[in-house]
TrEMBL record:
Protein family (similarity comment): Belongs to the zinc-containing alcohol dehydrogenase family.
Cross-referenced Pfam families: ADH_N (PF08240), ADH_zinc_N (PF00107)
Entries under InterPro entries matching the protein: ADH-like_C, ADH-like_N, ADH_Zn_CS, CAD-like, ER, GroES-like_sf, NAD(P)-bd_dom_sf
Domain Enoyl reductase (ER) span(s) in chain numbering: 14-341
Organism of origin: Streptomyces andamanensis
Signal peptide: none
Coiled-coil residue windows: none
Record-linked SMART domains: PKS_ER (SM00829)
Keywords annotated in UniProt: Metal-binding, Oxidoreductase, Zinc
Enzyme class, broadest EC rank: oxidoreductase
Protein name (record): alcohol dehydrogenase (NADP(+))
Length: 346
C-alpha cells in the first residue's frame, strides 16, 4: 500500500481539508496513475454535502482525473508507464451482466463501483481524484490523446462524456436542431460537442450574460429563458433538448419546444423532487428521458473525437488550497467554466 496526500471532506457539509489516504498495492491488472489534474464537478459538491442522500466519509471527491501512468501490474496490456491517461466516474463494475457486456458499464445491473463515495469489491471505500495518486484496474482507464492538454482534458472525463453520450445516442448531426439548457460546466462542453457533430445549436440560459461566450464556443443562437417570448418564438423547434442544470424547471414550457418525436434529455440531477405534468408529454409525441455518463469504450471515443476537433473544457486552474472557495463559487455560478485542481499543490 502507498500513503498519498489528498483533500477530503471529513463529514457531510464539512469543509474539505488536507489529509492522507492509503492506495492499494498495484495488482496484476492494475495501473498506478500520478494524478496531474482533477476537475471539480457539481456532483462532487452534491455528494460531499449529502445532497443526494447518505454518503461515505471521509470522502475524497473527484471523478475527472487526468495523469500519467507510473507503474503497471504484470498482466496489464492496455497501458504502459509514461502513458497519458484518464479516469472518470467509475473504476469497476460486475463485468458479466448484459449491460457490461454491451459496453454500457455505467448501467451495470449490480451497480458500478464509483470512483469515490462507494465501496469497492475489496470492501474498502473508494477515494477520488483530489489526491496525488490512484490505482485503477486497466479496463477502467482511458487514453488521453496527445492532442489534448491534460488540464483541459480532465473535465471531459465527466462533463465531456455526460454530454457526448446523449448527443450520440439521439443521433445529433447535420440537419438536427439541438438546444442546450444551461451554459455552465456541462453546458459549455455540450455546445462544443453538438457544434462539432454538425447540429444547429441553441443555448437556453436564464440570461444573456454569457451570450458572447456561447456564440464563440459554437452556438448558433442564444436565448434567455427569463423572457417569456423565448418560449413562444421557439415552440416546436428542436429535435433534442439537452438539459444540463441541476435544478427543477418549468418542464411544460421546455417540452413545448420539441418537434414531433423530439426528446428532452436530463443529465443534471436536482436534489429536490421534480414534478412532471403528464399532459405536457402528449403533444408532438414528446419524450422526457435521461442519460448517465457513458461506458468506457464510448468515453475513449469521446476523447478521440475531442482531440480530432480541438475540444477541451474552458477551465480555471486552481491550487488545492482553494477547493472550498471553488465549491462556493460553483454554487453561485461564479466560474467560467470548470475549476481544475493542479494536484501538484496538494
Amino acid at each position: 500500500m502507498t500513503t498519498v496526500a489528498a483533500y477530503a471532506a471529513p463529514a457531510a457539509k464539512a469543509p474539505l481539508e488536507r489529509t492522507t489516504i492509503e492506495r492499494r498495492a498495484v495488482g496484476e491488472f492494475d495501473v498506478l496513475i500520478d494524478i496531474k489534474f482533477a476537475g471539480i464537478c457539481h456532483s462532487d459538491i452534491h455528494q460531499a454535502r449529502e445532497g443526494w442522500g447518505e454518503a461515505v466519509f471521509p470522502m475524497v471527491p473527484g471523478h475527472e482525473i487526468a495523469g500519467v501512468v507510473s507503474e503497471v501490474g504484470p498482466g496489464v496490456t492496455r497501458h504502459a508507464v509514461g502513458d497519458r491517461v484518464g479516469v472518470g466516474c467509475m473504476v469497476d463494475s460486475c463485468r458479466t451482466c448484459e449491460n457490461c457486456a454491451a459496453g454500457l458499464e455505467q448501467y451495470c445491473t449490480s451497480r458500478p463501483t464509483w470512483t469515490y463515495n462507494a465501496v469497492g469489491k475489496d470492501g474498502k471505500p473508494t477515494y477520488g481524484g483530489y489526491s496525488q495518486k490512484i490505482v485503477v484496474d486497466e479496463n477502467y482507464v482511458v487514453r488521453i490523446p496527445d492532442g489534448l492538454a491534460l488540464d483541459v482534458a480532465a473535465p471531459l472525463l465527466c462533463a465531456g462524456i455526460t454530454t457526448y453520450s446523449p448527443l450520440r445516442h439521439w443521433n445529433t448531426g447535420p440537419g438536427k436542431k439541438v438546444a442546450v439548457v444551461g451554459f455552465g460546466g456541462l453546458g459549455h462542453v455540450g455546445v462544443k460537442l453538438a457544434h462539432a457533430l454538425g447540429a444547429e445549436v441553441t443555448v437556453l440560459s436564464q440570461s444573456l450574460r454569457k451570450q458572447d461566450d456561447g456564440l464563440r464556443l459554437g452556438a448558433d443562437h442564444y436565448h434567455a429563458t427569463s423572457d417569456p417570448e423565448t418560449f413562444e418564438r421557439l415552440k416546436g423547434s428542436f429535435d433534442l433538448i439537452l438539459n444540463t442544470v441541476s435544478a427543477p424547471l418549468d418542464f411544460p414550457a421546455f417540452l413545448s419546444l420539441l418537434r414531433l418525436d423530439g426528446a428532452m434529455v436530463n443529465v443534471g440531477l436536482p436534489e429536490e423532487p421534480v414534478q412532471i405534468p403528464y399532459g405536457a408529454l402528449f403533444g408532438n409525441r414528446r419524450n422526457l428521458t435521461s442519460s448517465n455518463i457513458g461506458g468506457i469504450a464510448e468515453t475513449q471515443e469521446m476523447l478521440d473525437f475531442c482531440a480530432a476537433h480541438g475540444i477541451g473544457a474552458e477551465i480555471e486552474l486552481i491550487d488545492a488550497s482553494r477547493v472550498n472557495e471553488a465549491y462556493e463559487r460553483v454554487e453561485s455560478s461564479d466560474v467560467r467554466y470548470r475549476f481544475v485542481i493542479d494536484t501538484s499543490t496538494i
